[in-house]
Amino acid sequence: MCHLKIVRVKIAMKIKLEVKSSLSVLLTLLLMVGITITSTSLLVQPAKAIDDSVIFIKELTQLSTGHEEHAPSIVLDHDSNLHAVWVGNNSRNLYYMMVDDHGNILINETCLDPNPNAYSRHAKRPSIDVDSNNTVHIVFHGDYAYDPWPNYTSYINLDAQEVFYLQLNPYLDDMDGSMADYVNITVVPETIISVDDGIKSRAANIAVDSADNLHVAWFDDGRRWSVPFELHYLVMNQTGHANLPEINVTAGFLTDPDWGEPEIVVDSNGNSHVFFVTEAWTNHTRQYRDIYYTMINGTDGTVLINNTQLTDSNRTWRHTRPFVDIDSQDMIHIAWHDSRFYSNETGEHEIFYMKIDPYLDDQNGNSTDLETIKVVDEMQISKNDYWRSYLANIAVDKEDVAHIAWINGPGGEDGGVTEISYARVNSTGEMIIPATSITPLGPLDFAYWSGSSSRNPEIVVANGHIIIVDMAQDSADYEDIWLTIVQFDITPPDIGVPTHLPPANISEGQPVRVLVNITDSEKGVNDDKVILSFSFDNGTFWYNAKMSYNSSLGLYEAVVPPQFNCTWVSYKISATDNAGNTAVQDNNELYYSYHVIPEFPTFIILPLIMLLAFITTALAKIRWKAKIKIT
For residue 493, is the peptide bond before it cis, meaning its omega torsion is within 30 degrees of 0? Predict the structure, then answer.
């Protein structure tokens, strides 16, 4: 009975109830030790430190041993195993390694072309991809060819650089962690696929389509500032024979192949998308760079979208080294660095990102308008912090989320000490993990440059693991290939449905114990940030109490102080993990609640009142009868 009314004391009772309400609040304040007060519906959280969310699956690890290793290229197969190739032995040889998505070595560093008379500049800037059978396809360019297979005892000087193709089946090896026999895993030995015409063919990249056709694009001819380049393209079948012989897609542009090699992806229709950089030169001085794009029919080589400018340098900036990936919707994600914030003191560059949908164009062979195909506007990814952020690469996962990695470090006199940074952008273009470091700053220099053998940090994503491979120079001036694998804890703790004890018939002045199960499978629950919040006015005003872990029960617990009769108590729970992710369990904003009843329950009070009424009535009758007798 929450409102007993006795006629003769109605006014006094009203005053008493008002005093009781005030005393309820005062009692709570007096009994809560260490409990803080907040007037908001959610707890005020500290600023999130995204670096705390990095989980290392594989610490930064050196893969190569030759100390003259450059230009890694990596790819994931359909079993989530990683295949890596790079140039080693001062660009004399091509090396290969296979690891799983945790960084365990399946095939150790293996030379694919061990010529005893190896000559420098045989292999430069390899590119790798896999087909549906996990067969590995590799292209690179070089100045001479080894001969004969499989002994490779001699070499042939070429009149100019040409593009080579090589096919491997690593699954023919026992994958016991030792090096492979290159003869056993080679399906197609090194073969020149560009026309051997005495004209430079270089900076080739490869992409495999869903029908296992191999699409290759490269630069032909060109002398930087003096002779325009041509963009060449061919398509091969799985055996390495040409379905579409080499064609010249476009010509007449100037570029520096070290800073703008043609990047290629293939969509679900078998059409190719190629991105490259053009430059403007005055004598031997570059002025500005812009990124261009073209779309090619992968069956007959016709141009569907002609050269289209994607960036605007304002004839001043340099948009450089675009790397691309394609998602499940055939939309293409592009990352690059540019110099719009450049200064001589800091050497500042920043990373930018854009997404396009080429199928928004009519594909009539003409150039398109960027506004027609642009899905996500150009956006800055790296921090505008006066540091040099450059050499970006990108990988798109199965949920069409873009993962971007780049080199970051101080410019000017502090150059040479760098780190690898990372950011994540969701399918709608929203930054869900801002720029953060995933390697220590130094002692490695990931931005070490070795002419045309260098490449941006390679990145792929497997089962939530972000795998990054890059070349770096250490303090001993050794250049090697390094691997790191991380994941990010961006999942908040799991908070179960709480219970309170006693579960019912909570009496006035009785404390209530709240219990809940909270787990976090990644970085763990932060025990200092598990909070019970409770309110006496349905969520307008909240009191907070830290919950403690009860190891014997495996539950977190806290106590709501005793309350007066007729108080409705609402409560909710929040928990933060060691990565800074916070979850709130509030019963979908309906909260959990209980009601405080009088010290004697109703089933006891009602009979007492009835008995009291009976006694009062009997006494009244006795007095009345006595009065009659007297009178």
Answer: no
User: Which token pair is 189?
Assistant: 């030995």
Question: Encoding tokens for residue 395?
Answer: 């990988």
CA 472 to chain CA centroid, Å, is 22
| Residues β-bridged to residue 424 | 403, 433
Distance (Å, whole) CA 374 – CA 293: 12
39: pLDDT strictly greater than 60: no
**Model confidence pLDDT, tens digit, residues 80-113:** 999 999 999 888 999 999 999 999 999 999 999 9
Q: How many residues appear in the chain? A: 631
Report residue 371: phi and psi, to 5°.
Answer: -65, -25
Report the alpha-carbon distance of residue 265 to residue 555 in Å, rounded: 51
Spatial neighbors of 12 by CB under 8 A, at least 6 apart, are: none
Alpha helix stretches (DSSP H) within 32-142:
none
**pLDDT at position 101:** 96
| CA gap 224, 230 in Å, rounded | 12
pTM of the model: 0.82
Which helix (H) or strand (E) segment holds residue 613: the answer is helix 602-630
Distance CA 333, CA 324 (A): 6
Mean pLDDT taken over the chain: 87
Whether the bond between 511 and the residue before it is cis, its omega within 30 degrees of 0, is no
Cβ neighbours for 617, distance < 8 A, ≥ 6 positions apart: none
DSSP 185-234: HEEEEEEE-S--SSS-EEEEEEEE-TT--EEEEEEEE--TTSS-EEEEEE
3-state helix, strand, coil in the chain (%, to 5): 15, 45, 40
> Is the separation of the CB atoms in 498 and 592 below 8 Å?
yes
| CA angle, 488 then 489 then 495, to 5° | 165
DSSP letters of 228-285?
Answer: -EEEEEEEE-TTS-EEEEEEEEEEEE---HHHHPPEEEE-TTS-EEEEEEEEEEETTE
Indicate whether 26 pLDDT > 70.
no
* Alpha-carbon dihedral angle through residues 260, 221, 302, 130, given to the nearest 10 degrees: -60
Q: Which amino acid is residue 161, in one-letter code?
A: Q
pLDDT band of 456, cuts 50, 70, 90 = confident
Measure the CA angle with vertex 345, ends 340 and 347; round to 5°.
45
